[in-house]
Amino acid sequence: MELVLALRRAGITDPDVVATMESVPREVFVPDAFQNKSYQDITLPIGHHQTLSQPAVVGLMTEALELDDRKKVLEIGTGSGYQTAILSPLCRRVYSIERHAPLLEEAEKRFENLRIRNVTTKVGDGTLGWDAQAPFERIIVTAAAADVPPILAEQLSLGGIMIVPIGLSDDFRTILKVIKTDHGLETEELRDVQFVPLIPEEATGT
Ligand code: SAH
Question: What DSSP designation does 147 have?
Fold first, then answer.
């Protein structure tokens, strides 16, 4: 109920998105120490200095993707797998990339337990996209980038939508909705939020 109220407060009205968020058990994605906070509208730590996004932000980004069961979606930053689990019933297939192997292993166990079967994952640098599976009708980036990652824009279908948080400073981050048109990329700002940064491999060497 708390979750539904948070979604309503954030202006999320798409009934399919709201119903899916009600049906996916967030506590499955939350570490033991924070179980009692599973349904609060806050970000929660998932280890490796990463966070599980706030439900209102997950709802906002999911709604903005305008999904249906024909869409192939690329997700960057699997993390706990919570966002992936929300995308799964709303689209045809999700390809999800995570740079931390241990996080991805845990997420894959959760998909197995929840019988989520239309998700394909890999460990890697999501800023490089997933060439073998491109193009994608939808792309969602769940870590903040300095700008729209150019390779991801290339791997987006014409008419496709990419949702990506932009801005590398903690106090200045905004979710961009990018639409690929004949004339290039059209962008719209959705709202300011908190995100951990998107880290290309060459930046850290890890
Ligand atoms: N969507 C996740 C939360 C995202 S936290 C959830 O629902 O739990 C952001 C995630 O992006 C982290 O797991 C982080 O490791 C990952 N990440 C950051 N930079 C990345 C990159 N370049 N490629 C792939 N994953 C990346």
Answer: S
Ligand 1 atom closest to residue 52's alpha carbon, by position in its atom list:
8
Average pLDDT on 44-50 reads 90
Torsion over CA of 24, 190, 144 and 147, rounded to 10 degrees?
A: 140
Q: Go through the domains of the chain in sequence order and give each one's CATH number.
A: 57-193 (3.40.50.150)
Q: How far is CA 166 from the centre of its chain?
A: 13
> Would you call 53 a catalytic residue per the annotation?
yes
> d(Cα 114, Cα 103) in Å, to the nearest integer?
17
Ligand 1, atom nearest to 143 Cα: 9
Q: Are 141 and 162 in contact (CB under 8 A)?
A: yes
Q: What is the pLDDT of residues 105-119, one digit of tens each?
A: 999 999 999 999 999
CA–CA separation, 140 and 176 (whole Å): 10
Residue 57 sits at φ, ψ, to 5 deg, of -75, -40
Q: Taking Cα atoms as reference points, which of 24, 197, 52, 50 lies closest to residue 126?
A: 197
